[in-house]
Amino acid sequence: xxxxxxxxxxxxxxxxxxxxxxxxMYEAGMYNLRKFQxxxxxxxxCGQPFFLEPMxxxxxQYVSYAIQVALFVSWFVAFNVLFDExxxxxxxxxxxxxxxxxIPLNWRMSRVVxxxxxxxxxxxxxxxxxxxxxxxx
Length: 137
Ligand SMILES: [Zn+2]
Description:
Blueprint: H1 8-13, H2 60-82, H3 88-101, H4 103-118, H5 123-136
Helix pairs in contact: 2-4
């Protein structure tokens, strides 16, 4: 994706640390169903803690809800544009399947967005993290 590394969207879409935009927020791939939700305690590049306080990610449910509503509305619009006749059974079954398939993505993205609300990009931390990364390579 052609986004500058300093932009929040780059960090969100790549599920990177909000402080340095380099460290990964998740340990395993998204569709590794046993491990998709595992997060390290802090960023391995800059040390930013990922768990700011107990129950921190409870608030990510609001983001998750917004993502789900966006999916539902987009699906509804696409369904009306693509088909002449609105078929409620097909709409409900397809949105159900899409929602289930998106659980890992929605789960992860809502936490990433939630943490980005509270932690801002720090150019100096990013430079230090980059220097450590090149030194270790
Ligand atoms: Zn970091």
